[in-house]
Amino acid sequence: MAGARRPGRNFLFVPGPTNVPDRILRAMHVAMEDHRSSDFPKLTLPLFEALKKVFKTKDGQAFIFPSSGTGAWESALTNTRAPGDKVLAPRFGQFSHLWIDLAKRHGLEVIVQDEEWGTGASPEHIEEALRADKNHDIKGVMVVHNETATGVTSDVAAVRRAMDAAKHPALLYVDGVSSIASLDFRMDDWGVDLAICGSQKGLMLPAGLGLVCASKKALAAMKADNCKRCYFDFTDHIKANATGYFPYTPAVPLLYGLREAFEILDEEGLDTVFARHHRLAGGTRAAVAAWGLKLCAKEPKWYSDTVSAIMVPAGINGAEVIDIAYKRYNLALGAGLSQVAGKLFRIGHLGDLNELMLLGGIAGAEMSMRDAGIEIELGSGVAAAQAHFRGAAQAKEKKVAAE
Predict the structure, then answer these.
(1) Which numeric CATH code is attached to 269-402?
(2) What pLDDT, in 10s, does the model give residues 282-319?
(3) Are both 22-266 and 269-402 of the same fold?
(4) Where are the domains of the chain?
(5) Which one in 205, 281, 336, 374 has a CA-CA gap of 20 to 30 Å to 402?
């Protein structure tokens, strides 16, 4: 149809999938090959070691599944838990809710700790529950590190300290889907037993890989009478992965993309990656303040550096802001989910992203909000973000000069 083409690139500012760098697109553009050839382990074996570095674990066992992050959730639970096992799970957003639902479907008894949306996991509530569990019936604690529905990051290190203070042996399961490779994540230092990630966020790939790291304690929890599993069975992968192969056909182009993603992260340096995400988030938060709006996250301690969930004024439907952004300005913003549907929109600021790209997203959000009837001053958020980014750049230059 004449006139249907939309020139330029779609501005993708949902909190996943994220922008895929051209380097990764080129790396994935490969001819199909025999995934059982003698050369295949040259590709795969280094991936498991590189994954452990991103998760920051020396002794963890890395797994790569052809799945979304939901498959990684399922693999972590089904390999280490049996039907009827009790697990403790804070619920404070749509993705913590969905993980709880998955656990229940596998026959686990989930003790849900409902926290206000806009806050995160409460170490105090977790410690209280574990101290009351004198017989150690609770076998695991499930925590979403970064809740993308509300733009909230929980303190996983504090959760581990709470578990240790309660002297409780439960395994610590952490969803790092929208945090790993974007926010500081320390599997070993924080005593995480099962760490879970997906390929489509900080790793800058298309969706399609579910990534898991399991501690030695987690692997020791694998028993024959655990939840039924086949596709996600750790045992099959451990046997095949040892020599660089998989128990079934892997997603070969994504593995090449993953290798390139690890090279990109290594070139920038993980600490620099984390600092960049913090800087971009700061600019976004400065824009929100200039608009006179509020984040869903209730306090600065909960603020996420990968996604900002921005509350719209009463009488405004956040979904309309998102629809206008997409139809008029070719800008994709994240929607409000479940309890916050229509109450907010989300700007994802993670993955392969820099200041100028984000300024475009902020500008598009401003226009969309004004078109939806929100009385903000056009350019106010952009100017605030610019000031933040300029200040951060100057501070960085002074620090480098001083060193």
Answers:
(1) 3.90.1150.10
(2) 999 999 999 999 999 999 999 999 999 999 999 999 99
(3) no
(4) 22-266, 269-402
(5) 281
pLDDT in the model for residue 3: 64
The HSE-up count of residue 28 (CA atoms within 13 Å, CB side) is 17
Residue 76 and residue 47: Cα distance in Å, rounded? 19
CB-based contact 255:64 (threshold 8 Å): yes
Is pLDDT of 2 > 70?
A: no
pLDDT of res. 252? 97
Q: Token pair for residue 5? A: 């083409």
Query: According to the model, what pLDDT value does residue 6 have?
Result: 82
Whole-angstrom distance, CA of residue 64 vs CA of residue 71:
10
Asked if residue 75 has pLDDT above 70, the reply is yes
Residue 276, both tokens: 């960049």
Percentage of residues in the chain having pLDDT higher than 70:
99
Other Cβ atoms within 10 Å of 224 Cβ, number = 6
- Residues 63 and 212: their CA atoms lie apart, in Å, by 5
Calculate what percentage of the chain has a pLDDT beyond 90.
95
CB 381 within 8 A of CB 365: yes
d(CA 318, CA 109): 35
> Which CATH topology does 22-266 take?
Aspartate Aminotransferase; domain 2 (3.40.640)
Amino acid letter at 179?
A: S
Q: State pLDDT tens for residues 227-239.
A: 999 999 999 999 9
3-state secondary structure the chain: CCCCCCCCCCEEECCCCCCCCHHHHHHHCCCCCCCCCCCCHHHHHHHHHHHHHHHCCCCCEEEEECCCHHHHHHHHHHHHCCCCCEEEEEECCHHHHHHHHHHHHCCCEEEEEECCECECCCHHHHHHHHHHCCCCCEEEEEEECEECCCCEECCHHHHHHHHHHCCCCCEEEEECCCCECCECCCCCCCCCCEEEEECCCCCCCCCCCEEEEECHHHHHCCCCCCCCCCCCCHHHHHHHHCCCCCCCCCCHHHHHHHHHHHHHHHHHCHHHHHHHHHHHHHHHHHHHHHHCCCECCCCHHHECCCEEEEECCCCCCHHHHHHHHHHHHCEEEEECCHHHCCCEEEEECCCCCCHHHHHHHHHHHHHHHHHCCCCCCCCHHHHHHHHHHHHHHHHHHHHHHHC
Across the chain, what does the average pLDDT equal? 97
